[in-house]
Amino acid sequence: MTAVKIDPTGRSLALDLSGRETRFHAIWLRDNAQDPETRAKTNGQRLLALRDIPESTLISQAEINEDRLDVTFSPEQKTVSFGLGWLAAHAYDRPNRAAPGWLPEQTQTWTAELNAQVPTGDFNQLSTDRDRLRSWLGDVTRFGFGKVINGPVESGALFQIVDLFGYVRETNYGRHFEVRTEINPTNLAFTGLGLQAHTDNPYRDPVPSVQVLYCLESSAVGGENMVVDGFAAVQRLRDENKAFFDVLANHCARFEYAGEDGVCLTSRRPMIELSPDGELIGLRFNNRSLAAVTDIPFEQMELWYAAYRRLGEIIDDPAMEVVFRLDPGEGFVVDNTRVLHARKGYSGEGTRWLQGCYSDKDGLRSTYDAMMREGGAT
Ligand code: FE2
Description:
24% of the residues lie in helices and 29% in strands. By secondary structure, it is α+β, with helices and mostly antiparallel strands. Strands 7, 8, 9, 10, 11, 18 and 20 form a seven-stranded mixed sheet that branches. Strand 4 and strand 5 (68-74) form a beta hairpin. Bound molecules: fe (ii) ion.
């Protein structure tokens, strides 16, 4: 049987979990007690505030009984039982994290090699088969985007995509927006309609974290959609030049949109956003809505511009691109905090009609994680 070692101060204990000595503090264990007086049986919510737990809480006794650790706390003289599996899953006594710029859980970076296997779901299957939906939402979580095919060719069909995982986020552009392009034969020579890959609406706080684009008409040649993994681009920048990564992560840019009456959207956020411990949270990259940046020290402004230029070059590198065409009844969902999107230029005559809308990642992640728990996965 595994032994439990209580620190002589009573402030922590140590036990063997998954072959490694793992420490837990008395205050952490007491606060995370899973008994019905601490946690509501119905919804699992914590019933105590920290002020209800004595500051002098110590471990007075601890022993392992089969697959559980029973701990008695003083001065309450309260005994709480923890599953060893739960403790292993929630252990925090681990080696330090990697260097700043590490990936969130369940994500995987990609470059052009993903052209060979663009994550795709069939609309009818996603609507009726929960396993298919779970698998597709898993792809969207992992790669930050996913295509949908064989959907209805009717205005508003994009809302049915959002219904698969969450809720529409309405903005000043409406519940959805139209992207209509008619290419005039007299403009045949003009092929410069492509846009640099970008994330949408960096001037919002918070940004819409999911975008859906859906095709209803497409008779023009060209105009393919292109996506780039912003996390892969940022990690490449970091590996090439740490100073470039740091200057974009450590200073705020400014973004603005005030292009219609009564609207003045502004934000002050870094292009590369990290959590305090260095996890990649998101990327904001949009040349059209970058405002005058005024939060970079004079001594670092040229470095910031060099870093911004290099990040743009990496994003423009065809080796980073995944390109796909959207035909009527096809659309894609993109994590707008991570994956940049763009439209390639047109080279012929015809029309193109897309509808777009925003949603949020919390709904998508909640739907996916709940499905994973239902499915017995941890
Ligand atoms: Fe866009």
